[in-house]
Amino acid sequence: MKISTQYTLEQTMQLLSIDSPTGFTHNVTDYLLETLTNLGFDPVRNRKGSVCCTLGGEGNPLALAAHVDTLGLMVSGIKANGRLRFTRLGGLSLSAAETENVTVVTRSGKRYTGVIAMQNASVHVNRELEEGKRDEKNLEVLLDELVASKEDVEALGIDTGDIICLHPRAHVTPSGFIRSRFLDDKLSAGMLLALAKAVADKEITLSRKTTLFFSVYEEVGHGASTGLPEDTEDLLVVDMGCVGEGLGCTETQVSICAKDSFGPYDYAMTSELIALAKEHKLDYAVDVYPAYGSDAGTALKAGHDVRYALIGAGVYASHGYERSHRKGVENTLQLIQAYVTKA
Fold this sequence. Notes:
Distance between the termini: 17 Å
Helix content: 10-25%
Number of strands: 19
Radius of gyration: 21 Å
Shape: globular
Structural class: alpha+beta
């Protein structure tokens, strides 16, 4: 394989280290612009914030899409006792967010750490703690500051509308597991950067015009509604592959999605991907995702006239503390390489 797994993981870790909840993505797109420019390409960022970069090739234009916005929170109010109320940015699993460390970023750029906790969170005080519902009403953010009132918090410069970033806790185990929040979808974005490097290093030759598209509002449902090149004929979304009860995919495989909550993916394009996976003897699974949407559905709703398909490395515990595996990355990279170089 000529697309580097190691470079993919290195780029994934870099992307994961940059806070980018939906609506607060300028720092991560700055990084994309810098990285792609250093590789010799001419990426552009549109007014909405998405990054588009043509890698080369001629004919039958193909776009590969991944998103770099993540789940997060926003301050929705300051309580009288100095705790923060919040609202979700995207579909974060709040059961998996309890006790997570966070950073609050003010509009002036100040940063304060804290933690997500249940109200009255001491087991030795609250006998009903375990029965409490984990939701926006019962969870709150405790700042790591000596605050005891709304006025104390306001004096720090914190206000409604400020961004709350969850710490990703990213690492790769010696056995090859990749554990972090926001593998959906920074793991895929790392793969697309690795594809760009392989093209720049002339390790692979593109068989058609190929463009990378990094969207920034996927988690709230309108990521690829604008910004795709007008001449795009095929859209290959690279997003997390679902792993869970009733599905065939594991964390070591590449998942090919046949249908999600929006509807079926293009039958012919999906069939091409399956045929390539078989031809190259990849470890893959074809699945129907029961509760899932992607930038493909967004692009179609916006009126883009494209064929569309979705692949991705298997990811477990989506929208929580997620896990994938190096082998899943390798299988996905091989399928990407096969698709962009096929005659």
